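Researcher: We're teaching a course module on how sequence relates to structure. For the next exercise, students receive a sequence and then see the predicted structure as tokens, so they can try to spot secondary structure elements on their own. Here is the exercise chain.
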Amino acid sequence: MFKKIYVTMFILAGLFACKKDPSLVGPPDRFSTSTYPKTLDDLQSILSPCYSNLRSVGLYGFELLPKALENATHTGDANYNGDASWNEMAANNLSVTNAFSTRAWNAFYTGVKNCNVTLSAADFFEKNFAKPDDKPNIDYIRGQALFMRAFYYFQLECLYGESYIKQGGAGADKMGVPIYKAFPENLEATQQPRATTRQVWDFIIEDLTESARLLKGKVWSGADQGRISEWAAKGLLGKAYVFTEDWEKAKTTLADVIQNSGKTLMPYPKYRDAFIGISANEFNEESLFELNIDEDNKGNYGPWGGTPNATTLNGVIWSAYALGADGTEAGAVA
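Model: And here is the predicted structure for the students to work with:
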């Protein structure tokens, strides 16, 4: 009798000892937003997707450049009939369901989301775990995220906005793209209407101005040399002023880059070889911001074999369709 009682008590004690607060239970492969990021390295890991999203298959990894834009600009003869989205672009008959267009849209907004998550994480880290001397590095991370968000919106507005802004403001009230200034916390927050063209460009200019301020004087070197700098932000800012035909601000901003960034044009012999000896010429004296390309002589799309990616694809942009010996098209060449 006593033996049964002790066994029963032991089982009950085990059950109560193993009980866990449901709020502490979560997927083991995910970080908790209540405790992460705790360190600068954690915060850097959240920033990384802002950059790596550029290599998305829907963007510079494969479809947007060169596959889609080559046809949209008629730099290639679209004699290929195996891809309906390809043929739509070549024929200037783009549908709302075009795969290249919709995947680019999704990928650009994924980039925006990554940047908003980084900015939120920077605020969280600074408030909860940062040391006083972490502040400059937190701001450098913010500056990079703001540039990347502006870069993604720059592309979105150019590709999907209804109109550019002309000098004097014409076109400013046309439809732009939806603006997300923070990561949506509920379904309602995801339902953003299209902003006006002026609102989108103002948002881009605001992000780039703040990015340049936060990154002022920061010089990246070594493995970090491809990161966003003050001058990358000012260079894109000047371009934003050009695209909105604000010529006075464009002139002032771009003159600052030309005169004070320390950048110079590559001499012709180096420029001639820039796309041959890629690794030797990346992040050169002319570069403000670039998506670096890894050389691969295996004759495929890079380290992942036949899988589309951006490591080599920008270096093997399709040429115009080749002519055979008889003067007829002989097929595509890379």
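Model: If you want an answer key for the exercise: The chain has a mean pLDDT of 82. The longest strand covers residues 329-331.
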